Amino acid sequence: MWKINTLLIDHKESGAIIALMAINTVTITWAKQQYPQFLLPHLGEKRRYTHLMSRALLLSVLQQYYDPGITALPELSYNQHQKPSFISAPYLFNLTHTEDAVAVIIFPLSATTSSSSVAPMISIGIDLERIQPRRSFSGLLERTFTPIERAWILEDREQSLKSSTGNPAPLSLPLNSEAQRRFFLLWSTKEAYLKADGRGLQGLKSLEINPLQQALYGDLRGGKLYAGTTSFNQQAHSIALYLPKNSADHLKITALQVTSNGATFSSAQIKWDLTLSDMPKQHINNHEIPF
Question: Which residues pair with residue 238 across a beta bridge?
Answer without folding.
Answer: 129, 229
